[in-house]
């Protein structure tokens, strides 16, 4: 009976030895993959390690301080890499400026800005100004700042439209 238990022990000992060897091999493979992943991560440019919120602030600052139209700058920044393009496309805070207005962008800016507050600076001809006002007045509750540089006819139009409009977030209105 003792020889039967000796055989059982030796089989179990061999199984334990094989499992330990397998565990050692798997641990080595995992450590190797972790090392490779860390190496890839560390090879990324430092700017890609910044949190998205910081990148959004940087993009906003660059676009506002640029010599070009705000959204043209964002377009240029989005060409740098796929990550930046995604961040710019999906960050409502970057889509809150109505400056040097382009009528083709109005609906896009309104949609992409989500529920963020809007800053307006509108200097336009009568027809363009009216189009923009018609698009922006329904969302006046989102206006943070609004500056209008218009001719006398548009000022009357603006005055008429602004009566009864609720703009609780508005901190500055310039006409």
Give an overview of the whole structure.
58% of the residues lie in helices and 11% in strands. The protein is α/β, with parallel strands linked by helices and 175 residues long. Strand 1 (97-99), helix 5 (106-112) and strand 2 (118-123) form a beta-alpha-beta unit. The N and C termini lie far apart (104 Å). The model has no long low-confidence stretch (mean pLDDT 82).
Largest sheet: 4 strands, parallel
CA-to-CA gap between the ends? 104 Å
Helix-strand makeup class: alpha/beta
SSE pattern, N- to C-terminal? HHHHEHEHEHE
Number of H/I helices:
7
| Morphology call | rod-shaped
What is the mean pLDDT?
Answer: 82
Task: Note the beta-strand portion.
Answer: 5-15%
Number of strands: 4
Helix content: 55-70%
Low-confidence stretches: none
Radius of gyration: 31 Å
Strand ordering within the main sheet: 1-2-3-4
Brief summary of the model shown:
The protein is α/β, with parallel strands linked by helices and 175 residues long.
Features:
alpha/beta, 175 residues, 4-stranded parallel sheet
List the helices and strands and how they pair.
Elements: H1 2-43, H2 52-65, H3 70-78, H4 82-89, E1 97-99, H5 106-112, E2 118-123, H6 126-136, E3 143-149, H7 152-162, E4 172-174
Parallel strand pairs: 1-2, 2-3, 3-4
Helix pairs in contact: 2-3, 3-4, 6-7
């Amino acid at each position: 009976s003792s020889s039967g238990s000796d055989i059982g022990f030796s089989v179990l000992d061999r199984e334990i030895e094989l499992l330990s060897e397998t565990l050692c091999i798997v641990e080595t493979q995992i450590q190797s993959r972790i090392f490779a992943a860390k190496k890839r991560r560390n090879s990324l440019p430092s700017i890609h390690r910044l949190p998205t919120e910081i990148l959004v602030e940087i993009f906003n600052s660059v676009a506002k301080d640029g010599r070009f139209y705000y959204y043209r700058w964002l377009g240029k920044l989005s060409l740098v890499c796929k990550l930046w393009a995604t961040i710019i496309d999906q960050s409502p805070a970057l889509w809150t400026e109505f400056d040097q207005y382009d009528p083709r962008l109005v609906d896009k800016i309104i949609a992409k800005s989500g529920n963020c507050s809007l800053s307006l600076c509108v200097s336009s001809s009568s027809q363009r100004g009216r189009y923009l006002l018609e698009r922006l007045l329904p969302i006046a509750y989102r206006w943070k700042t609004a500056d209008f540089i218009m001719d006398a006819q548009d000022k009357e139009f603006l005055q008429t439209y602004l009566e009864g409009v609720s703009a609780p977030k508005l901190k500055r209105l310039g006409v």
